[in-house]
Amino acid sequence: xxxxxxxxxxxxxxxxxxxxxxxxxxxxxxxxxxxxxxxxxxxxxxxxxxxxxxxxxxxxxxxxxxxxxxxxxxxxxxxxxxxxxxxxxxxxxxxxxxxxxxxxxxxxxxxxxxxxxxxxxxxxxxxxxxx
Length: 131
Fold this sequence. Notes:
This protein is mainly α. About 90% of the residues lie in helices and about 0% in strands. It has one domain (about 35-130). The N and C termini lie far apart (about 90 Å).
């Protein structure tokens, strides 16, 4: 009877240790996912900051000249396309390799993120200028 009680206690202790190990692994997995999502969010913020900075640079170096050279003071569609290409190119140059790699591995469309952030920033600039 005493041996049976010892075996029962050993089995219960083994099950408890196993349960603690499984719970620890589950918590580690959940925390890892949370950290990964935080890192992806930080990388996206880096892309947005770089796109805004690049929009400002392009405004100062190219947009003014292109508008001044145009008869109606507006950009032609091919000039807009060229500026979008430059926005993507210059923004990608500013990104850190880890941020770029992380966003790629998370299947984020980096070029669309850059374009969207740039267009949003341009709209904000226009809204502020009009006000």
